[in-house]
Amino acid sequence: MRSPFSKGFTRENIVNLLFVLPSLILVGYFVYALIGWNVVVSVSDWKPASLTPSYNFAGFGQYVKLFQDPVFLTSLTNNIILILLFVPTSLALGLFLAILLDSKVRGEGIFRSIYLLPFSLSYVITATLWAWMYNPDIGVINTLSRAIGLGFLKSGWVGDPNIALGCVVLAIVWQFSGYTMLLFSAGIKSIPDSQIMAAEVDGAKGFNLYRRVVIPQLKTPALSAFVVLMIFALKVFDFIYVLTGGGPGYSTYVLPLMMFRETFSSTQFAYGAAIATLLFLLALVIVLPYLYLSSRRERD
Amino acid sequence: MFLLPLWTDLTTSFKDLNDVIYTVPVQPPRSPTIEPLLSAFNIMARPLLNSLAFTVAATILSCLLGSINGYALTKIKFRGANIMFLLFSIGIFLPYQAVLVPLVLTMSRLGLYNNLVGLILTHTTYGITITTLLFRNFYGLIPDSLIMAAKTDGAGTWTIYRRIMLPLSLLPFVVAAVLQFTSIWNDFLFGVTLARGSEAMPASVALANLKGTTEFNWNIQMAGALWYALPILIIYLVLGKYLIRGYMAGAIKG
Amino acid sequence: MASITIKNLTKKYGNTIAVKDLNLQIKDKEFFVFLGPSGCGKTTTLFAIAGLVKIDAGEIWIGDELVTSIEQGVFKPPQQREVSMVFQDYAIYPHMTVFDNIAFPLRIRNVEKDEIWKRVEKTAELLGISSLLNRKPRQLSGGQRQRVALGRAIVRRPKVFLMDEPLANLDAKLRVKMRTELKKLQLDLRTTTIYVTHDQVEAMTMADRIMVQRDGIVEQIGTPDELYNHPSNLFVASFIGSPEMNFIECALAKEREGLCLDAKEFKILLPAKILPKLRNSIGEQVIMGIRPEDLYESGSVDGILQGNVLRMTVDLVEPVGPYLLLHLRCGQISLVATVKETNVKTGQEVIMEMNLSKIHIFDKKTGKAIT
């Protein structure tokens, strides 16, 4: 398609350009220029604790330092564990809920609204709520367990370094399952009734029907949800900051948190910038293939 | 069962200190009081106002710009359209840590550190990435023949936007606005990085601070959470279905 | 034995009655068509037979088996009814290959692998899609998808084929071709078939018998010939046949020894044969029906019962390939006549005769046929 721009600077072209210029400038700067700047910082010799940056090239020393830092390795491991626990569980739970929702027709809207509510709330709120729930002395979980006689289940929850991460995962699964449920639900609804009827006439019902006809067609929503969940697991900061602050010890320390602490608490600006760049690259690895695939699909 | 955490929030907000310690959280308060709510409100009043201010402003701006971008990407055929859209789409998934440091530097150089305008600028810009997506998808469904008819009638680019696209855009505006309001109101990272001082502190940061400073006053914390959640709850009840549409538009920044 | 018997079938959606007190008997191996305009209840009836909708009253038998009965509380789910169905949008599974789609009903029933292979291949060959077995639906054309849907329906060898407007989404040429193929297929397979359509040409060319429905009520059941030549009411008469039958309002009056149809513009003396049937309607207002092909230019056809004439003006001459449509007018009356060739031009006057043995007379109030 020949662009009108190729015809030169007509009045129309200038108006067109003006349309997108503000956004282009804003996004161009705040996203891409800043990313670049950040990379520069990560290889600069900006001294820690100094508030004025200094931009002499200092090599990739920060990155080397990262991989030798046990805190970094712990954070990385935690992030990976988080992803491995969080993503499949959310997807599975969402799928389960969507199928459940599909079977009963009455009250569907209400259930959907209930399940989606947590997703709409700020992570600060939900983290605060869960912190309260997980409180070993007077939190809901322990007191309830005691009340129904399952007192032996009582534990330190987020105070216990061994299971703190698991507790975090539980909380964020709670928050996200409504979202995955929504995507799957929309996917299920998009399957024409006639296919379900055809399958019924052909002899399929219940579980069999879902397994053979419905679920295989949910690849697209599953992929979308997957990418969103992965990105979230990578950059989850708000929630952990409020719920555990990374503790106890470093058991819930994750990369974004580490970046934040290093940069703003320890003023290791270059170091923090290195972590941030790494995060960005990891996100790119996940996002670019997805964007490529979905643009290809749009062209069909 | 699922709503358990929310229920306990509600009940705890109305309990006085003794109740909190001695009763099971699921039970309603024995002697209900609005004292925790008031204390929380006192602490959070200013931040709530701040949040309201910059959220509304950034929502409006990002929606407007998103609409213009969507229009440009779908109806004005220019060469860089696909590239521009791709670049914006990456912005949706951007982990904001990657721009945090330069962002702080930029803001302080512009004198916008700890400043409402700084927050507005930030949220607007990052919001554009997703509002553009929403509007692009919506405008893509408007038949090109409509635009062509307008052109033969003599309308220029801006006129087409004003008289044809905008009037048709009520739905995406509502969806985008609801989505943006929720995201921006709920944001924490930018708040804690760019606005620690009380001039511009958002409610999210205030709530987090509440947790830190009143470690054992759970009732005040819960009350604070309730205040902070209130606008979102109202929006959810009234405009919930638009929010849901926004979520389904594909990708949401977590 | 795969006959179908329906007694007193009623189905309501809220306050709307989709099917009202339907009684029907379909013979084994019959190609039976449900015909009618949109919303007449034909698809609902089909779905009721399949067990895809629950009914409000009545009973349905497939063969000797009672599959639905409200009075006796019987309902066999669709999975167990041994019917198969072809939908208007084909409803083939997009995530499976053609082979898997056709094999699906067999796999569900845990048929042995080798047997599945054999049957699917045979079916594909029968339908001419053997080369497509490994493709996915999105790579197929509309006609090919339709055959896949057919394949899935016949591979099971059910008692009854149910088809819901399967040709509606095909382009005109393909539709005509598929009509013949479907009919041949049905004769080969010798399975009872119920076919739903709103296209009366389709119904007339394919059916052994047709049921015409309107607003949930049966208007007439009969062979194509019966419906065409002896429509039992105005609706059937107007619905069947293209171009549509001509209708003229007139009065039935005494004339000399017999009766005639009296309208402002003409008078038609009726043949003695049909007089007995009209005894009770003398003096009434009636509607006369005559098909376009039964109108002739005066003197152009020999050997037909020569009737009285109509003096008409030609409004338009429309060539339609093998014949011509003459649009005629006289006063308030407009008629369409089908002729093989003509010399008249627009604006000219022409004298028309009609084949009196093909006249239909309907009661004006009830619409029912009197002859």
Task: Please report the total strand number of chain A as a whole number.
Answer: 0
Shape of chain A: globular
Proportion of helical residues of chain B: over 70%
pLDDT averaged residue by residue of chain A? 79
Largest interface: A-B, 94 and 84 residues
CATH superfamily of the largest domain in chain B: MetI-like
The proportion of residues in beta strands of chain B is under 5%
Using the CA coordinates, give the radius of gyration of chain A: 24 Å
CATH domain class name of the largest domain in chain B: Mainly Alpha
CATH fold call of the largest domain in chain B: MetI-like fold
From the 3D coordinates, which CATH architecture of the largest domain in chain B would you assign? Orthogonal Bundle
The first-level CATH class name of chain A: Mainly Alpha
Would you tell me which CATH topology of chain A applies?
MetI-like fold
Content-based structural category of chain A: mainly alpha
H/E element string of chain B?
Answer: HHHHHHHHHHHH
CATH architecture call of chain A: Orthogonal Bundle
Characterize the largest beta sheet of chain A: strand count, sense, and whether it forms a barrel.
none
Q: How does this structure look, described?
A:
- The complex is a heterotrimer of chains A (300), B (254) and C (371).
- Chain A has a single domain (76-299), classed as MetI-like fold, CATH 1.10.3720.
- Helix content of chain A is 72%, strand content 0%.
- Chain A contains 13 helices and no strands.
- Chain B has twelve helices and no strands.
- The longest helix of chain B has 41 residues, at 35-75.
- Chain C is α+β, with helices and mostly antiparallel strands and 371 residues long.
- Chain C is 23% helix and 36% strand.
- In chain C, the strands form four sheets. Chain C has a six-stranded mixed beta sheet, with helices on both faces. A five-stranded antiparallel beta sheet of chain C has the order 2-1-4-5-6, covered by helices on one side. A five-stranded antiparallel beta sheet of chain C has the order 14-13-12-15-21.
- Classes of the chains: A mainly alpha (300), B mainly alpha (254), C alpha+beta (371).
